[in-house]
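Catalogue entry: protein
Contents: sequence, fold tokens
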Amino acid sequence: MTQKTRTTTPRWIAPAGALLIGLMSLHAQAGEGGLYGPTAPKGSAFVRAYNAGNGELSVNVGNTALNDVAPLGSSDFKFLPAGSYSAKVGNQTLPVKLDADHYYTLVDQPGVAPKLVEDPPFKNKQKALVRVQNLTDSKLTLKTADGKTPVVEAVAPQGRGEREINPVKVGLALFDGDRKVSDLKPVTLQRGEVVCLYITGSAGKLSPVWVKRPAAEG
């Protein structure tokens, strides 16, 4: 008579496996929540603040508050119903119109009226996006630090330029024609991420600053 051999799995393995799967799921959900925040209702607009000044900044758009924005820093985006608002940026106010499913940044810079600029969303999860917001009176180009390779070319005054690139940590520089204006802090570009260079000031003294969403930093 042939005796069958039966293999049994210890009872503790199944609960342990379930626990592991649960922890992985919880970690994924926590990561997504930290990156994207609450889900916005359909048709919302999104706004954040960038502070080009040297003191903390508070901004209000309707009932939406963007408080204690650090010097040369930004808030994260907050959503609100699309529509027309009066925005208070520090001690100044300006009318703004926010369209549904659009992303905007309110920029405060010393000696200049605050400005609303559009920051379109980026949906390519395989690449990173380098964006240049040129809020100066000069045409500027973003190149590799050695000046040999243009990355975002000839961004017009008060204009925007951008380019998709592969994820990488890179050192770049800002050029006015062939003249190097400034070397920039090395920046790490991750898949699906927008890294935006905000340039404020005037030709005599430009202030270029990398701006990432706070949840993406670190």
